[in-house]
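Morning F.,

Quick status update on the modeling queue. The single chain you submitted on Monday has been processed. Sequence for confirmation:
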Amino acid sequence: MILNKKKIYQVLLLCLALQPFGWRTAIAQDRFKQEYAIKYYTHDRKTNNAKVLSDRNGRIQFLQAGRLLKPFDGKLLFPGRLSADITYRYDSLETFRDIILYQNNFVYLTNQLVYSNAWAGTCLFKHHLPKAKFLEMDETGNVFLTDGQQIRCYAMDGKVLANARVDDKIKAVHYDTRNQLFWMLSNQALYNYSLQNKQVHTVYRGSDFSCFTLNETGKLLVLAKSDRYSLFSIEKSTDGQVKMIQQGDWDDRLPAQPVNTVQYVDGTLWFGSMHGAFRQQENGAFDYYQSGRWLPGDTVYSLAKGPESTVLIATNKGLARLHHKAMSLEEKAAYYDKQVRERHIRYGLNATLKGLKEGNLRTGILSDSDNDGLWTSMYLAAEAFRYATTKDSDALLNCRESLLAMERLYSVNPLKGFPSRSFERIGHKTDLADSKVWLDAPDGRWSWKSTTSSDEAIGHLFVFSVLAEVVNDPWVKEKAVTLMDSLMSHIVANDLYLVDHDGKPTLWGKWNPAYVNQFPTNIGDRKLNSSNIISMLQSAYYFTKKEKYRDKAWELMDRHGYYENLMRPMKGIGQADEKADDYSKMLSERWNHSDDEMYFLGYWGLYRYALNDTLKNNFRKAILDHWEFERPEKDALWNFFAAMVGEKNFDRDASLWFLREFPLDLINWQVTNSARKDIRHLEENFMNQSTDAVLSPKERPVHRHNRTTFILDEDSNGTEEFSAGDIWLLPYWLGRYLEVVK
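Structure tokens below.
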């Protein structure tokens, strides 16, 4: 049916009319607030204080060591700089003591003057408090100054209104519009001063006070010590004075200490400390921002509302501007796809950018890795699921390019069916990781890396079967099946070993019963290797129909106990007992999360290509038994594999949380969470679960799926940027392919 213009107009009106009833809401709910930081560094690294504000025009000024600075350039991952603000000639000549906002315009305190460039410059007068440190103004424009003891108040035209004194050392000042009071804090007391009665009142005494603030209504005051804080309601007493009523005990459950500053920004309570900034959520928990992912320096001195609903954070090394961008998961996927294509494709392999100098992406090089084949397999699978879901031609091109790289892992060496760990042009062996295991290729132009392990093999079988199943492209399917057959023929012909250039099995490429069944039943490698090899053999049989793979799978399950091995419940996996051999003890010191990655990649072939329905149903039980152990990690990839086997309660909300909370910055900045008091730490345990609940991905170290999400600390300094290809794009596009992510 062809609609005329009138009909189209009616349909559009109907759509608009439906907006209040949820049509618009349904669209908006697909978007979330993606956080990221733009950093601006200052060249002066010696400052011990800084303050930042933004006026009604969106101008940002950073006060540091008496100078006014402003941010230039800067975007995500490419920091800008703070340079002298010479917009007004006069400003560049002054030494500044403080800067505030009045009617959302900048007002300055210098050694001699109080002035502003707003209101046609009419606010300008000379004060007589040479060591004045703090400036505040009330709603009528009256000016309050203090040097920490002396108080002097002026009208905006410079007329002296009052003088007073506090026998203490004032360290912070705020004006309370509701009660028309200037509040002052010292180490041991909180005072207020009224221009009406010109009296200083002591309101609260204690010790070790560091900072304070009032909320927007003036009804709530937040008072912080170096290691704790408390809330106080502000009420007037019968004598007309105000009193503070404490709301609960002092709370020391903070992410970092000592606390330097506290501030409400758009109704949200923020703290700045010597080790980062944190904000309080509605449920009382904290979002924690630390290290180069979020801040130029970890010592936070000042917090303020910035232009376009940003948050400004002044640190010892510069300014951070925290943005919140409305984004959908599909838009986030596009961002990560660009990251991979621009900086992480090495000969078609999915690579890490290494050698960064303090996170500077311009200094990085594409690096080789032991697991080039595995990381590429996971990225390639992501592109396969993307193509199967969207039919995007770029996704197909990416599949073809990386599949050629996977093929090159086999063809670059002279061993039939043996995959290299990696390859590189000749002449660079001394620059490569583990240079002793690199060999020259027969063509004399390339080097290849030997000693390939089982995690490479399972990654290869996973992606070859994914490509063969979901990518409707004859060239891709044929090449994937050919490579799968080549690898599995090598393994079967060599008695279930990966045999290297020296004629010996590699250290980890072993699935032979003599190796697998040597371990006690509670050692993870016995279950893992059994699960992986059955998955690999089933996959090879499903796509090649060669009976040798099916027969070998049945032989291992029926005659060598591999079925019992892989079906054994996860609760039975643990540390070797005292009588076990040293090798078993070494393998079972702790839960191996790299094994988890191998298990789950293998579950694709174990479940989907099971040799019969009975096995498929039983394998499903084994997979979900393992998944139950992994649920606390809230890893979307593991959850979507649970969805793949038909689990309805696969923790969708936790998976979306994982995808949304992942930072856009994937540089390995130093992260320290182990000292936090706002989280509950657990005793050391076999599963490496450090806390009772996993932290947000934006707060913890960036890591691949072969490490637990409960890792709290990372001792690094922005030397590497990880690829999103295997970390984020694989779970996202798997979820899209399975239709559990919209």
